[in-house]
Amino acid sequence: MGFPKGFLWGGAVAANQCEGAYLEDGKGLCVPDMLLGGDVNTPRTFLPKTDPTAFYPSHEAVDFYHHYKEDIAMFAEMGWNVFRFSINWGRIFPNGDDEEPNEAGLKFYDDVINECHKHGMEPLITLCHYEIPWNIVTKYNGFTDRRVIDLFVKYATTCFKRYKDKVKYWLTFNEINIACMGEGGIGNLYGLGMMDPEDVNSDHRIPLDELKSDPQKMFEALHNEFVASALTVKAGHEINPDFMIGNMIAHTTVYPLTPNPKDILAAYDEDDFKNNFCGDVQVRGEYPSYMWRYFKENGIDTSYITEEDKKILKEGTVDFYTFSYYQSNCITVNKDVEMAKGNMTVGAKNPYLEASDWGWQIDPDGLRYTLKLLNGRYPHTPLMIVENGLGAFDKVEEDGSIHDDYRIAYLRPHIAAMKEAIEDGVPLIGYTTWGPIDLVSAGTGQYAKRYGFVYVDRHDDGTGDFSRSRKDSFYWYKKVIASNGEDLD
After folding, report:
1. How many CA within 13 A on the CB side of residue 153?
2. Coil, strand, or helix at residue 380?
3. Measuring CA to CA, which of 117, 196, 284, 472 is 20 to 30 A from 184?
4. A Pfam family matched by this chain, by name (predicted)?
5. Are 473 and 488 contacting, i.e. CB atoms less than 8 angstroms apart?
């Protein structure tokens, strides 16, 4: 059977990691604009008081804002029929709560969307890929304030109305379940914004994993995102009934480290809390039973979940389920084991897997396993993988070539696993690799952590002319798409 006709092949980026032009044409400050760079061993740091001597990678990123025509033409050369990108909320409403949208921001995305159509690509737009206006954090404390629900819906409907005849596929919040990945750091800063005022007003560099947070506020903020997402789905379907509006989950597949029943139960609970909870709310339209137990046992007051909210969640379920997949982790009750890093997660090291330069365990079989699990959990919901890729150090040879066989070696078995899952009957509709062009790493703020098929001459010391060049993987992915996933050699 193989990949179906019309399967969506492409790549995915985020505005804060690729666009640059951070205050150009009326854009307002956003949370990622306060993040400094890091490296493989140093946590990314947060500095809310702008320091003219500091290096903020997102301020220029890889300058997609001025190179989008060139970049989209290169994507088209690979044969893409879908391009996943995000709209930066701060380009449309610079402060998040402005009365009127910024026309220059709307026009920029008009131009990007038109360029996609010119090259035969469907835009797949993420409305919130961690790009929260800074004013929403400082004035409202992020999504902890229910007023931000209406502000987000206003922003989303502005985009829906503007692009209703140009865009079919939408995602509400990127990796919404990051709130469940830990009490601070990324889950605190990106998207939820319930930082301690001391952090918000700090003039010191603070590692992300040291940002303060409050579990009660975290779950309240997450709930408000659920409601905002559901209201956005409802509004989108009223504006254009043909819209396909999805969620997006950071999926980290978990296995028990041993056959010990306690490890098996621990892995099951981990999977429910970190992977399934948010998907259950957005696909099924209600909080799962295991979360009510979690709230009770962890002292979370759930009075913020109103009967009206429950009705909204039921009425605003998503049309398709999308997720990122980079690696798997093992779970054990034994504390004395070697640990492995991951996409905002840490787990026990799996002795059967190799790892990337950043310690992420590489597990293509886990992708097929994950697709089968999700199909069983949500049997009538189309699935799409919207992030998958390998961050690695790339070397430019003297002749300008970049031989990234390791990236091809990572992607090849993952695509093969997708084909096997389709043979299993999984309704997989598309695949967008993460970082098809080099960009700023969200986790570390590095340029050196490269994912792309397209190399960008930009480096962690701020040097580079932003010129683009094709890696070996560029030509390989082009061949994969031309064969609709059949030719992986």
Report:
1. 20
2. coil
3. 284
4. Glyco_hydro_1
5. no
pTM metric for this prediction: 0.96
The C-alpha R_g of the chain, in whole angstroms, comes to 21
Identity (one letter) of the amino acid at 429? I
Q: How many whole angstroms separate alpha carbon 429 and alpha carbon 441?
A: 27
- Burial of residue 454 (CB within 10 Å: 0-12, 13-18, 19+) is buried
The answer to whether the CB of 417 falls within 8 A of the CB of 398 is no
The structural domains of the chain, ordered by start, are: 8-482 (3.20.20.80)
Q: Which amino acid is at 307?
A: E
* Residue 178 clears pLDDT 70, i.e. is over it: yes
C-alpha torsion sign, points 272, 278, 279, 284: positive
In eight-state DSSP terms, residue 27 is: P
**pLDDT digits over 367-395, tens only?**
999 999 999 999 999 999 999 999 999 99
Which residues are identified as catalytic? 175, 387
Report the C-alpha gap between 55 and 60 in whole angstroms: 10
In one letter, which amino acid is 274? K
Give the pLDDT band of residue 342 (cuts 50, 70, 90). low
Find out whether 462 and 451 touch, Cβ atoms under 8 Å. Answer: no
Asked if pLDDT for residue 191 goes beyond 70, the answer is: no
| Spatial separation of the C-alpha atoms in residues 208 and 212, rounded to whole Å | 9
CB 218 within 8 A of CB 183: yes
Backbone angles phi, psi at 367, to 5 degrees: -70, -45
Q: In b/e form, how buried is each residue of 291-323, taking b as 16+ CB within 10 angstroms?
A: beebbeeeebeeeebeeebeebbeebbbbbbbb
* Residue 143: both structure tokens together: 């999504």
Give Cα separations from 425 to 8, 9, 372, 433 (angstroms): 17, 19, 9, 22
Please count the helices (runs of H) and the strands (runs of E) in the chain: 16, 14
What are the angstrom distances between the C-alpha of 224 and each of 149, 220, 259, 305?
A: 6, 6, 39, 9
Backbone angles phi, psi at 412, to 5 degrees: -55, -55
CB 72 within 8 A of CB 122: no
Alpha-carbon distance 112 to 106, whole Å?
Answer: 10
Please determine, for residue 185, whether its predicted confidence score (pLDDT) is greater than 70: no
pLDDT tops 90 at residue 181 = no
Q: What is the number of alpha carbons within 13 Å of residue 427 lying toward its C-beta?
A: 13
Phi, psi of 368 (to 5 degrees): -60, -45
The answer to whether 116 and 85 have CB atoms below 8 angstroms apart is no
